[in-house]
Amino acid sequence: MVSRVIPVDPFDLVIFGGTGDLARRKIFPGLYRRFVDGQVPDGCRIVGAARSEMDHAAFREFVGAALAEFIGDSQVPDQVAAFLDIIFYCPIDAKGTSGWADLKALMRDGPVRAFYFSVAPALFGDLAERLHDHGIATPESRIVVEKPFGKNLATAKALNATLAAHFNEAQIYRIDHYLGKETVQNLMAVRFANILFEPLWNSQFVDHVQITVSETVGVGGRGGYYDTSGAMRDMVQNHLMQLLCLIAMEPPNKFEPDAVRDEKLKVIRALDPVAASEIVRGQYRGPKGHTYLDEVENPESGTESYIALKVHVSNWRWKGTPFYLRTGKKLRGRASEIAIMFKEPPHSIFGEGEGWKQNVLVIRLQPDEGMNLRVMIKEPGPGGMRLKDVPLDMSFAEALGADVIIPDAYERLIMDVIRGNQTLFMRGDEVEAAWAWTDPIIQGWRARGDMPAGYDPGTSGPEDALMLLHRDGRRWREIA
């Protein structure tokens, strides 16, 4: 099977923070792959903008080195050379006046103009203001902003107001790379393009839902940022919240931006407050020099590197069905998955003790993107009816063929920006609603003086997290 490439219009894409880590690891390699696949038409121009003083040639060397590191053997020299020909650079002062006239001179009339803010949120307002003051942004221009979208409701509102002073909502693309993952989009296809699951997708048939994002790495070089955020702000408020919305949302009337985002917003607004007894926070320990406290260089830190929550959606479809969310660093394995755990049949004709296990639909986001449905069958052989659960497994890599390369999330999302398609991007009111739910949880544990429980690296997290489900007669799925 060969994936279909849908072309986009010619564009000028400016990447502020063009010498940064995200640009080097994700943005430029992703754009190169889109270029190789023929999705970057003639007449496109990609401009890196940052404080560093360098010319076009030096920046092309920088991008070429990034491709060599993150694309590796799949590079084709002629294609790399052609891609680098459309790369330009502009030294710029985000808070000053230098460089803006040069950037304006690089822009052309006609192509779509997009501006990627791959910088600290504190610079968003300065960039937005100067793009307008210097006549670089047009009414059709688009801006892409990276998380974090504020640190709480007040700062999120302030950030939205800052951006809205210069761009309207249709021009603002708040990027969450989880929504660009192929499996996340397939979650919508599984639900809304098939009759098989949707009749069962409710509290009558679903016992509970587990959403897990586990990492084997620690905070590493992000210690300064992470210690002011923690797992709740860094992961739950955005990534896990978006996955929860896609599972719990009602079918939109159309697959278009506002229809999808309206339904996601309804889910967030239907979330119940979370009681203290339904939250577990943890911090990884370990040998001296490798604990969370050592890595963030703050021996008094009360920031969590792990969090698990029991969440309820109070609406007609989901009332009474718990959603268990967990995410953490330095855990046993690297995995992102959603598990839909179905209820037992109302009556077993095979009697007790016949090995029945729950039907489970598992959507794997990483690694090995795919879906797995566990169902009960008769175990082969004579001697009675013995039941066994087996997987109906679909790995995307195997099911779609070796010729299909699943694109990185950033590739899809950047191309959606150029198309002007906001379906997979968060709207301002959606971000604010998520913070309105998150803030009381954070304020609650601060008011109580709660401290995270310790857990050993390479485990599945704090023991209290196991009890969160055990009290309900349930168990977490194993982190592989």
Automatic annotation (TrEMBL):
It comes from the Bacteria. Residues 188-477 form the Glucose-6-phosphate dehydrogenase C-terminal domain. NADP(+) binds at residues 17-24, 51, 147. Keywords: Carbohydrate metabolism, Glucose metabolism, NADP, Oxidoreductase. Pathway: Carbohydrate degradation; pentose phosphate pathway; D-ribulose 5-phosphate from D-glucose 6-phosphate (oxidative stage): step 1/3. Gene3D superfamilies: Dihydrodipicolinate Reductase, domain 2 (3.30.360.10), NAD(P)-binding Rossmann-like Domain (3.40.50.720). It catalyses: D-glucose 6-phosphate + NADP(+) = 6-phospho-D-glucono-1,5-lactone + NADPH + H(+). The keyword Transmembrane does not apply. InterPro entries: G6P_DH, G6P_DH_AS, G6P_DH_C, G6P_DH_NAD-bd, NAD(P)-bd_dom_sf. PANTHER family: GLUCOSE-6-PHOSPHATE 1-DEHYDROGENASE, GLUCOSE-6-PHOSPHATE 1-DEHYDROGENASE G6PD. This is Glucose-6-phosphate 1-dehydrogenase.
